[in-house]
Amino acid sequence: VSRLIRCLDPASGEMHRWRTPSMIGSVALAEGNGLVCGLADGIWLMDRATGDFTPLFRPEPADPAIRFNDGKTDRQGRFLCGSMGVHADPLGSLWRLDGAGRTRVFATGIRISNALSFSPDGRIMYFADSLERVIRAWPYGPADADIGAPRVFVDTALWGSGPDGATVDSEGCLWTCLIQVGKIARFTPDGELDRLLDAPTDLPSSLAFGGPDMATLYVTSIMDSGSGRAISRHPKGGCLHAIEGLGATGIPETPFNPAPPGSGG
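Predicted structure:
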């Protein structure tokens, strides 16, 4: 909503900020001091040294009723990003962009794209339409092939919420924010609930492991989503939170590797 990317060094407390050309939905690391970003109108590459943005992919024709939301790189460094209807209409798609600029669509009819994450070996992709309150798992190959048929991984309606952002730890367990009940859940690779934690605020939105040993769980949260659907009543709404001592470690994400200009592919 604020059109702002922040980068914090937890050790020094140093903060960097960059303005984005449009509303930001997701961000992932890219090779060479870059960030790959899911913005309202498409996927962009940002240079952290200059703050300059370069468009990598924008669907044609442009549709102001659709914006990009949750995104993540797969284990091969390709960037997947789900679009969604601005008013939660079923207009979104799940896109994949590789470094050569090639795109594929893996799902359509999405209202709110979320929970995108991958198993440690990269052979399972997790993804959700939050309003369905179900996370699905797809067989996912490392090669440029079609994904398999999805199965229901977990029905989060059992805990009173749709899933928001998600990540997978080194044991293959999926962590997700249950935004409507202020909880963080960990599910085993079999889809069984392993832990249910109180989030640091009422509207946890996404999470990722970090720190020198990948043992700190960082949790983002919403202050005001801008749509009227989510407005925090917690004094720490909109803050970035760090949770220690969980006994779990994450997996470093593979950076997006954009092809050099003119390389084709």
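Summary: The mean pLDDT is 94.
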